[in-house]
Amino acid sequence: MLGTRADAEDLVQDAWLRWHDTDPAVVQSPEAWLVAVVTRLAIDRLRSAKTERAAYVGWWLPEPIVEVDDRTPEAIAEQTGELSLAFLWVLERLGAEERAAFLLREVFDYDYAEVAAYLQKSEAACRQLVHRASQRLQRQPARQAVPEPAHRRLLERFLAAARSGEREAIQALLAEQAQLVGDGGGVVPSILKIMRGRESIAKFYWAMERRYGGQFVYRFARINGEPGLLRYFDGLLESAQAFETDGDQITGIYIVRNPHKLATAPAGLQT
């Protein structure tokens, strides 16, 4: 719902305090009570965040969740589509209640009666919220489930092409309508407009390699459940890069440079 770990943790803490101050005897279903409270708190926080993000410099991307873990491939695959930076980026197009209704119904699989209770709306209103959200999301290019090994292999080829400094090699791995979104938050320089098209993106990586190639080091990482790259400049973390792919080519690149959003990622090459 919120796109940042700190906001999510604050919200859960607030919900816990409310639970702690509630008489358990008046709660018929702890799960329903907790889901309803967390959902309403998330809606309130998201509405507030929309106002804050209107003043944000450049494009706002969700905080990348960088991890190395030992979960099974099945567990990773189950969560990947729900956590990917690309999916969260698309969700930003939805209003707070649309987003809550869509996630409760389509991701967490609650029935409409439960969604209506959590949002304190009628079932008909919740169906309309989910329908509107689905229509808005369908305007985006269809997201395809890509096995992690295939995603990783494509990323390895892209990294090799970027390091080679050959623009044509980079371009060949990008979809014709690929897009690149950058987030520096006004703290560090970043792309202020969405970059579209394989030629522009290939030229961007080619130019960066020509200018800084010897100072860049890339490290593979799982970013929001999918293979991605951490890029280090002179040994310090410079960006987290998430990649959306159709299995054959890269369709989207999401580069988070805002240092406030990289606090939980390995800051140096030795960490």
Written account of the structure:
This protein has 271 residues and is an alpha+beta fold. It has helices at 5-20, 30-54, 73-83, 85-91, 96-107, 112-119, 123-138, 148-164, 167-172, 198-212; strands at 66-67, 174-183, 195-196, 216-223, 226-233, 236-245, 250-256. The chain has a seven-stranded mixed beta sheet with strand order 1-4-5-6-7-2-3. The longest helix is centred in the N-terminal third of the chain and has 25 residues, at 30-54.
Core attributes:
271 residues, alpha+beta, seven-stranded mixed beta sheet, 10 helices, 7 strands, 17% strand
Briefly characterize the structure.
With 271 residues, the protein is an alpha+beta fold. It has helices at 5-20, 30-54, 73-83, 85-91, 96-107, 112-119, 123-138, 148-164, 167-172, 198-212; strands at residues 66-67, 174-183, 195-196, 216-223, 226-233, 236-245, 250-256.
Helix content bin: 40-55%
| Major sheet size, sense and barrel closure | 7 strands, mixed
Pick out the low-confidence regions: 69-80
If you average the pLDDT, what whole number results?
A: 88
Question: Could you say which overall geometry the principal axes of the C-alpha atoms support?
Answer: elongated
* Class of secondary structure makeup: alpha+beta
Strand order of the largest sheet: 1-4-5-6-7-2-3
Tell me what portion of residues adopts beta-strand conformation. Answer: 15-25%
Q: What is the N-to-C order of secondary-structure elements (H for helix, E for strand)?
A: HHEHHHHHHHEEHEEEE
The number of helical runs is 10
Distance between the termini: 30 Å
Give the total of beta strands.
7
Radius of gyration: 20 Å
